[in-house]
Amino acid sequence: MIWLLLLYFLILLLIGIYAHKKTKAMPEDYFLANRRFGPLILFFTLAATNFSAFTFLGFAGKAYTDGLGQYGIMALGTSFMAIMFYILGRKIWKIGREKGYITPGELIGGHYNSRGLQLLFALIMSLFTIPYLAIQAIGAGYILQIIFPSLSMKIGAVAVMAIICLYVLSGGMKASGWTDVFQGMIMIAAMILAFFFIAISLGGAEKATQSAFEVNASLFSRPGPNGYFSVEIWLSFLILWIFCDPMFPQIFTRFYTAKSEKSLKAAMVLYPLLISFFFLFPVLIGVWAHGTGMEINNPDSVLLVMVENYTPHFIFSFVIVGALAALMSTADSQLLSISTILTCDLFGKKVRYSKIITILLTIFSIIFVIFGYSPKTGIMGTLVKTTFSGLVVLFPATIATLYWKKATKWGCIASIIGGETVVFFHAFFPFKTFGFLPAIVALLVSFILLFIFSIATYGRSN
Predict the structure, then answer these.
(1) Band of pLDDT at residue 59, cut at 50, 70 and 90
(2) Could you give phi then psi for residue 37, rounded to 5 degrees?
């Protein structure tokens, strides 16, 4: 186990060193890999970037507590999200190449010639991504704690963040993209192996499913045992994934890296094909755990507990590495994208500043691990309340900038500030949302304010 883990970390660092040798100290090369990612690398970096600690821990954990409905809200919504790779990604790629844009804020603010809007977009995107970055470290801490029981979660989180920081500093986007290919292959193989070995140990998939059904049939109903998966919640997540995921800075900035429109089309087609089977595996494993009779104290650990108990040791070791690959591939992308945004939007396109900010972001993430995370909320709950709710508000301004000629900078500013106000207000003074996630209310308010303020200020001087 330890040797496999050390080998994995060593390969990541070697890729980072190689990327460093191949990366010129120029903004386009360091931040965007010179916009040269072909279909294979772009697909893997988009997939690996989006498969996080949430995939190996949160998916199975939510399925364990609330049932098979988790597959519907994750697989369906995330698969449809791939359409945005082309609807948004194509135009972002084209405009970015023409204008030389590196960050999302440059595109939004540049369209209206508004420095204020650029900074607002950059700061909101960065602020709400830091908790997501910290979640990756938390997931790593839990995983390392399984290997080293005497090691605290927080120490493990710090160690993994330090390794991520090192190879991101070494090779920028090339290091991030190339390690994503390596880590993407590992995590896909690990999840497939985990599923099949657990199924075999439980007497086959059919028997494992039947056992879980006999223990708790409500796991197989849409509302689930706790009534969580209402129609409103399903619609909420479907909308959330489609509109929010492209607003992840690590996804948005990768649209700039495409070598051609062909790369984006390939990613759009391949992504839902992978999602349709890949997301089913952790959900089924989480549900199957009920049929084993085991008591799981922390739902987010159910997949790893199942693997540890129902697969050979070498498979367990490989799955541990696969889980680390999932969260580290997301964390390195987030770390690079946020440092890129803060550097370029605040201080100009200076690579040396980005490296300083990368180190500072690593420290901030560690602080969040220590003071900002509650195990009672869980991975999914933490992300829905923070990152997803905050980032989805940026979608109306983005789609309007790309497709609506009457959109104005004041419409975009009102949309963002108004939507974030709803998110903030609900966090401290919860209000009735009629069964929908609060993020959907914030999104609706953002669209309404964008329309009203754009119509009211259209034709006036920006």
Answers:
(1) confident
(2) -75, 120
Parent domain of 343 = 2-377
Partners of 258 in the β-ladder? 37
Vertex 100: Cα angle to 99 and 106 (nearest 5): 80
Closest to 185 in 3D by CA, of 45, 64, 292 = 45
* Confidence label for 74 from pLDDT (cuts 50, 70 and 90): confident
Greatest distance between any 2 Cα atoms in the chain: 70
Closest of 421, 322, 385 to residue 131, by C-alpha = 385
Amino acid at residue number 3: W
Task: Report how many domains make up the chain.
Answer: 2
C-alpha span between 303 and 284 (Å, rounded): 10
Same domain, yes or no: 370 and 409? no
Task: Please list, residue by residue across 29-63, b when 16 or more beta carbons sit within 10 angstroms of its beta carbon and e when fewer do.
Answer: bbbbbbbbbebebbbbbbbbbbbbbbbbbbbbbbb
Question: What's the mean pLDDT when you consider all of the chain?
Answer: 89
Q: Do residues 326 and 442 both lie within one domain?
A: no
pLDDT at residue 367 tops 70: yes
Q: Are 353 and 347 in contact (CB under 8 A)?
A: yes
User: Does residue 406 sit in the same domain as residue 371?
Assistant: no
439 and 308 in a single domain? The answer is: no
* Residues 321, 190 share a domain: yes
